[in-house]
Amino acid sequence: MKKRFGVLTASLVVVLSMISLVSCTSTKFADDPLDLVGSLDIDRYLGRWYEIARYQHGFEKTLVGATAEYSLREDGRVQVLNSGFKKTLDGKYTSVKAVAWRPDETVPGALKVKFFGLFTSDYLVFGLDEENYQWALVGNNDRDYLWFLSRTPEVSDDVLARMKEIAEAQGYDLSELYLVPQKER
């Protein structure tokens, strides 16, 4: 009985520690949400965007030449096609589809994206070339997702510096920023 109680106690400690860790990390920026763009014209945002830089994640970790392509669906939502090449620019092509929508029309820069019809994540546009829609910054309030997007496979040093400046001002740590190798497609 003592052994069983010890195992249960140890299990409880592990579970409570994990809950504590998750709640600490997921609420790190709870009182400091991203300052989103005040205007986002979905029609102008449609089309191909190249990933210039990003935080690395399991689902994208080996992708290079990564792009996101947005098109309007008949129901008014946005079809998303994320694609890239595994490990090298000559690697195996891979893609995944998703659906995006604006849940609150009064917050133009906030979208939701659903992958595989199963899970939903925030898609928050907090930086944008509002005049020409040539680059955008996308992330989430927890600051654990970040993408630098461009209409072209490369950006000038000035544009990259501006994107970094905006991301840092919004609380992003750029020490883990990965510059995505691209090729013209």
CA-based shape: globular
Strand content: 35-45%
Total tally of structural domains: 2
- Which CATH class of the largest domain is shown? Mainly Beta
What name goes with the CATH superfamily of the largest domain?
Calycin beta-barrel core domain
Structural class: alpha+beta
The CATH architecture of the largest domain? Beta Barrel
Strand-and-helix sequence, N→C?
Answer: HHEEEEEEEEHE
- CA-to-CA gap between the ends? 66 Å
Question: In angstroms, what is the radius of gyration?
Answer: 19 Å
Contiguous helical run count: 3
The total strand number stands at: 9
- The percentage helix is 10-25%
Low-confidence stretches: 4-27
- Main pleated-sheet profile: 8 strands, antiparallel, barrel
Description:
The structure is a single chain. The protein folds into two domains: 1-30; 42-179, Lipocalin (Beta Barrel). It has 185 residues and is α+β, with helices and mostly antiparallel strands. The model is unreliable at 4-27 (pLDDT under 50). The chain has three helices and nine strands. It has helices spanning 2-26, 42-45, 157-169; strands at residues 47-55, 63-72, 78-86, 93-101, 110-115, 119-128, 135-139, 146-150, 177-179. It has an eight-stranded antiparallel β-barrel.
